[in-house]
Amino acid sequence: MRILLIKPRWFVKGGVYRPLENIKFTPISLGILAALSDGHEVTVADGDWDPIPYGKDFDLVGITVSTFTSEQAYDIADRFRARGAKVVMGGPHPSLLPEECLTRADAVVVGEAEYVWGSVLADVRAGTLKKIYCGDRPVNMDDVPAPRRDLLNDNSWMASVQATRGCPNKCLYCYLPEVPWHVYRKRDINRVYEEIKSVKQKVVFFVDDNLFADPAYAMALFEKLAPLKKLYSLQAPTTIGRTPEMVEKMAAAGCFHVQMGFQTSNPDSLKWAAIDHNNIADYKKTVALLHRHKILVTGFLMLGFDTDGRDIFGRTVRMAREIELDDANLYILTPYPGTKIYEQFKREGRLLEGKGRHNFGWA
């Protein structure tokens, strides 16, 4: 079959992620699906790099969909369905709102695709495509094949890699606790090492939601990676500051940058949003520890919790300066469809219906 796998464009000039207009993350999830499509003619189109080939005919079009790309995804699906292609959607948004997506797609994958993608392909070929495909268990990370990077537009200065999936935290605003892949799992360290060794880029970004949920695993991984002499950027929780040995091993491996979810300067907001792992009193010494090891710190901070007052704007700016962040990304608390906070706001009549989803963020 002729298969097209699409990631709609994430970063639009002048959009909500203006600081990231020129950064493009390789869609390794599509590379993994390509690797699981052996025997078929596969094309991958990354909307941040590639034109979408609307003029070509495909038997199957797979689209990875986040909330903030869902409106794009629906328009893309309409165009390919009009040409006779079957469209399957997967990713966070279809996993949270499968019925909505089915109004614009022929089928959705709820949860991880690795254990169901073969059935999707067989059913498309047989003309028996089901509406919903859902794996019966979390994917063993060692069953995940290396992505087909030869099919990806890999011209970015940075390669994307994944060592773990899931996160044990239960933050109220996050979509992750609500999706099937929230359970924390790890890849064999040797497999991660071999994949990173094979990429051409000097800089590697770990896309993991929480690489540090198992500190022993993270430290062993950094020890293994150190001889490769690569440079690493990653997301890290504020709790890594409690383990100086961890930060030392990160730096020795080549970590030069972390994105860290400080989330708020308001302790009442930490409690309201169930951000139980954060302690504001630790922020400054955590940043100082990272700086001693020459690691840059980008802080993620949100505004608009129910417990915030008008002074939160000034408090947030002052804290970002006091703890000496190298960069700060500020976000507005957003109730993503399918999350607990969305359901709460809906019950309370607080949702602004009809606001374009391109105004949303990562989920």
Note the gap between the termini.
Answer: 31 Å
Q: What helical percentage do the residues reach?
A: 25-40%
Total domain units: 2
What is the name of the CATH class of the largest domain?
Alpha Beta
Number of strands: 14
Structural class, from helix and strand content? alpha/beta
Report on this model:
There is one protein chain. This protein is of the alpha/beta class and 363 residues long. It has two domains: 2-134, Cobalamin-binding domain (Rossmann fold, 3-Layer(aba) Sandwich), CATH 3.40.50.280; 157-332, pyruvate-formate lyase- activating enzyme (Alpha-Beta Horseshoe), CATH 3.80.30.20. Helix content is 29%, strand content 19%. The chain contains twelve helices and 14 strands. The protein has helices spanning 28-35, 70-82, 92-96, 98-101, 117-126, 189-198, 215-225, 244-253, 267-272, 283-292, 312-322, 340-347; strands spanning 2-7, 41-46, 60-64, 86-90, 107-110, 132-134, 158-161, 164-165, 185-186, 203-206, 231-236, 255-263, 296-303, 327-332. A six-stranded parallel β-sheet has the order 2-1-3-4-5-6, sandwiched between helices. It has a six-stranded parallel β-sheet with strand order 7-10-11-12-13-14. Strands 8-9 form a two-stranded antiparallel ribbon. Strand 13, helix 11 and strand 14 (327-332) form a beta-alpha-beta unit. Helix 6 runs parallel beside helix 7 and helix 7 (215-225) packs parallel to helix 8. It is globular, with a radius of gyration of 21 Å. The protein starts with a strand and ends in a 16-residue tail after the last helix. 42% of the residues are buried. The model has no long low-confidence stretch (mean pLDDT 93).
